[in-house]
Design goal:
The protein folds into two domains: 2-87, Arc Repressor Mutant, subunit A (Orthogonal Bundle), CATH 1.10.10.10; 95-196. The chain has eight helices and three strands; from the N terminus they run H-E-H-H-E-E-H-H-H-H-H. It has helices at 2-9, 14-23, 36-47, 72-87, 95-101, 108-138, 147-172, 179-188, and strands at residues 12-13, 51-57, 65-70. A three-stranded antiparallel sheet has the order 1-3-2. Strand 2 (51-57) and strand 3 form a beta hairpin. Helix 6 runs antiparallel to helix 7. It is elongated.
């Protein structure tokens, strides 16, 4: 999606796309740890006839660069993907909600320590994201190109606040559990009993 968007923006070669991903901070959205992943994506888009070779450039002392452009099918497909992704919430299966669903398997003290650890890590991520956004905006990149970062920061802020509320409850003892209480609760909500629903 990101690579196709760059080619829609302007005909591009792989190196330019890889650099734009890093310059615009999109390496938090797409995995480009290895430049080869950009080439693999380009090959897949080309095989699907969503992009095509526009020209090959050869600058003195530099390797040959293949410049790609979007095809009419690529533009149509990109717009369809983008519209669907923007307008239709999808089920995403993240690890964290799954862990929260089983949190009672650990002691409240361990949960408190791990949630504090998570909160600290999220605060660092938020600070990094805000610094990247600020640098991009200072370089003249319009805010329009940073909306994904704003969204990510809003989610991080919301999770940090939520974690703060939960850790406060755990630390004060307002939210707690133990094995005896869990067993009693399990017996109360046995399958087949009418009070389960």
């Amino acid at each position: 999606m990101v690579i196709l968007g760059f080619v829609l923006e302007a005909p591009s070669h792989a190196y330019r796309m890889h650099e734009l991903i890093k310059q615009r901070g999109k390496d938090n959205v797409v995995n480009v740890a290895q430049r080869n992943s950009v080439y693999q994506t380009i090959a897949q888009l080309q095989a699907a006839e969503l992009i095509r070779v526009r020209e090959t450039q050869q600058d003195e002392g530099r390797p040959e660069r293949v410049v790609y452009e979007i095809t009419p099918l690529g533009k149509k497909t990109f717009h369809a993907w983008l519209e669907a992704m923007l307008g239709e919430p999808r089920r995403e299966f993240n690890e964290f909600p799954a862990a929260l669903a089983s949190v009672m398997a650990l002691s409240p003290e361990i949960v408190l320590a791990q949630l504090r650890k998570r909160c600290d890590a999220l605060k660092r991520k938020l600070a990094e994201s805000q610094a990247t956004s600020k640098a991009c905006l200072e370089q003249g990149l319009p805010r329009l190109f940073m909306l994904d970062d704003e969204y990510k920061q809003a989610l991080l802020k919301a999770e940090i606040k939520w974690l703060g509320d939960i850790t406060t409850e755990l630390a004060s003892g307002r939210m707690t559990w133990n094995e005896k209480w869990l067993r009693k609760l399990a017996a109360q909500f046995e399958w087949g009993k009418p009070d389960l629903l």
